[in-house]
Every structure is written in C-alpha cells, then in structure tokens.
Amino acid sequence: MAKLTVEDLELKGKKVLMRVDFNVPLKEVDGQQEVANDNRIVAALPTIKYVLSHGGRAVLFSHLGRIKSEDDKPALSMKPVAQRLADLLGQPVTFVPAIEGPELEDAINKLEDGQVLIFENTRYADVVDGEVVKRESKNDPALGAYWASLGDIFVNDAFGTAHRSHASNAGIAANIAQTAAGFLMEKEIKFLGGAVENPERPFVAIIGGAKVSDKITIIQNLLEKADKVIVGGGMAYTFAAAKGEKIGNSLFEEDKVELAKQLIADAGDKLVLPVDAVAADKFANDADSYVAEGDIKDGYMGLDIGPKSVELFKSVLADAKTVVWNGPMGVFEMPNFAKGTLAIGEELVKVTEKGATTIVGGGDSTAAVQQLGVADQLSHISTGGGASLEYLEGKTLPGIAAISEK
Ligand code: AMP
C-alpha cells in the first residue's frame, strides 16, 4: 500500500506539525553557536515551502545532537538553526525556546496561514531537572500525545530517525488523525523501499565495509531479494578465509567463518566475492603493496579489491536494472587503496545512464561518490545511515510504519 504524502493533505489554515532532520553540525563563532553545514536544512526546504505556500501554519521541530545532562543543553539549542532557516526561506521564523508549555502553545495559536515557527531541540525532553529520563528517545506516551495535541496534522520528513521509535515521530503519529511523508521521506521510501520490496531486475547489491558482523543481516536479507550480492571491503577476507585462502594480516572475524562458509555454500553463484586484492605490508598509504590473486603473503593485508575483481564486479553490474550500494571496497580514505571503491562509483554512473536505478546508502559510500563528484548522476543517495541499513536489513522502521496509508 502507498503511504500518504504531504501532497495528499488539505493544508490551508491547518496547524501542521513537521518533524524535520535539522541535526546539523554547529560551530562556535565569537562565543555564539552557528550552523557549520546547512545541507540538511536546505534539503528540508521543499517540504516546508510546500506547506507554507499551501496555507499551512508550520510548527517545526527536530532533535539536535545528544542531550545527556543539563549542561549539554545551551550548546545544542535550535536557535542558530532557526536563524539559518529564516535566511534560507527569506521569511521570519519564530523561535520558541521551549518544548512544551504556554509560551509554545500561545506562539502556535498566533501563527497565521503561511507562517512558520520552530521550537527547541526535542531531546531537551531527555533530561528534566538534571535527571536523564529520555522522554523523547524512549517515546514517552504522554509527550507524544502532548505534541500531537499542538497541531491538526503531522508531516514526517526525518528519515534519519525513522529507525527509532521516538516521541517526535511514532509518538505523535499514534495520537493524530493523519501522518504524511514529506518529500525527503517519500523519496527514501520510493527508492530504498522500492529496491527491497519490488526491484526491477536484475537487482544487484554491493556490500562493503569493515566488518561482517555489522552487515551480515543485510547480506542475508539481500541474498533472498537480490539476483547477485557482491561483497567487498575488509569483510571479504573472512569469506576468503572461509574458502581456505591465506589472508595474512587482513581483517578477520574468526567467529564469523562458519557463517561465511554456510553463506558461500547456500548462495552459490549469487554471492560474488573478490578474486584478487591489493595487499600491503602495513596499514598506511605509503605501504609496500602488490596485487594478490588467491593467497595473501604472510605479513601483508588486503586493503582494496584488485583489478580483476573490479572487472568481475563491473561485468555483474553491466545489465543491472536496480543497484544498491552500501560500504566501501577498501580503505578508500587512503588514495592508494581507493581505486576499487572509486571504480564502483564510476560504474554506477554508467549503469544509471543505461537506465538502471542506483541507490547509495551509508556514510562511506556516499563520501566516495561525493569525492568522485558523481552524487547527482545516481538515482538516490540515502540521507540516513542507520535508517538505510535497517531498511536494507528488511526491518520495519517505526517512523515509516507510523505514516498513514493513502
Ligand atoms: P563500515 O563502517 O563497516 O562501512 O566500514 C567502513 C570502513 O571500512 C572504512 O573506513 C574503510 O576504510 C574500512 N575498510 C574497507 N576495506 C577495508 C580493508 N580491506 N581493511 C581494513 N579496513 C577496511
């Protein structure tokens, strides 16, 4: 079933509660906090502008950092975010320095059509009078109900927290008539949800990164859904060891070898593993290195996939219609071991040009496509690290489950 989106809502004259992801980095300038990077605020503008231009009265809120004590609060106030939002929107934004109470309620009641306010960091609710109570982060039912009572309808545009059941997403949704996805959330559901639920085939998944243990659930879930699952990065060496190859000092998780053996046996040619590695004598860009096919010499460690693996992976990607990529193929932070990861990024541009839907999730693969300058040539770059992982693991995300069906 399709989810309700902001475009399905009657917005005129309505108090529209909007959960946005304004968890932005801040910096101190002359003793004042300022927004250091406004990408997430810019990304939320289309949904906010849509609500305002359709006569909604927007009540915005977000978490910002982690609040573990009263002392954390001043440096994590939403005030500088409100200022930057006003600049970007080109209209006044009322900042309410509270998360509940008469001041907030009065300000909301004074809003006119097309006006916007933002209230304080939702995680201020996690510490009350110095005590850690996690009313927001543990979804205190009274808090969700209270926030819901402040508005008529709810728009959730914060995918980054969709894998958590918090008062500001699931809590409000449980207590309000309609919850709709904003444009950012809608795009994540369309691409990530589409890939795991109803992909155009062949569907190829590429999973990399350091540890098998972090990505094992994704690999298992995708082996059920995808036509091919390519595994690269540090985790591939546990699979190589499971095949009986020597891996030198490469990353290795002994307690995952049996699982790797079983996956290799069960998946057959659906699981595509590297056939060579760039092996180095130390974990450093200036290491002595060589291309190892099969066994890696004693004293060396695999830090990237080798050229034959790149060609193999490209051939698997060639006729793909849907591609999901999460995790680098090597230690891409070091230029000498970035080639495999960058080659995958370049190949994704080519398959996108040929009509495939290409989806990148996770901080490191996103950094790689940004480093290549090709992020805008792919179909979708997911904004939520943990949320996109859990989506690909096949888990139900509480923040998405809470959005009303059409
Ligand atoms: P993850 O957070 O699991 O996606 O892992 C990302 C990290 O894995 C990056 O910092 C990479 O440098 C690292 N990585 C990828 N391949 C290797 C490798 N062969 N050896 C050690 N670290 C690796």
Class derived from helix and strand content: alpha/beta
Examine the coordinates and then state which fold CATH places here, giving the name of the CATH topology of the largest domain: Rossmann fold
Distance N terminus to C terminus?
Answer: 7 Å
- CATH-derived architecture of the largest domain: 3-Layer(aba) Sandwich
In total, the number of domains comes to: 2
Fraction in helix = 25-40%
Number of helices: 14
Which small molecules are bound?
adenosine monophosphate
Classified in CATH, the superfamily of the largest domain is: Phosphoglycerate kinase, N-terminal domain
Rg, nearest Å:
23 Å
**How many beta-strand segments?**
19
Strand order of the largest sheet: 5-6-4-1-9-10
Shape label: elongated
Task: Please give a structural write-up.
By secondary structure, the chain is an alpha/beta fold. The chain has two domains: 6-185, Rossmann fold (3-Layer(aba) Sandwich), CATH 3.40.50; 199-392, Phosphoglycerate kinase, N-terminal domain (Rossmann fold), CATH 3.40.50. It contains 14 helices and 19 strands. It has helices at residues 39-53, 79-89, 102-110, 141-149, 167-173, 183-197, 212-225, 236-242, 257-267, 307-317, 339-353, 363-372, 385-392, 398-401, and strands at residues 15-19, 26-29, 32-35, 57-61, 94-96, 116-119, 127-128, 131-132, 153-156, 179-181, 203-207, 228-231, 271-272, 276-280, 289-293, 301-305, 322-326, 357-361, 380-381. Helix 8 packs across helix 9 (257-267) and helix 10 (307-317) runs parallel beside helix 11 (339-353). The protein is elongated and about 70 Å long. The model has no long low-confidence stretch (mean pLDDT 96). It is found in: Cytoplasm.
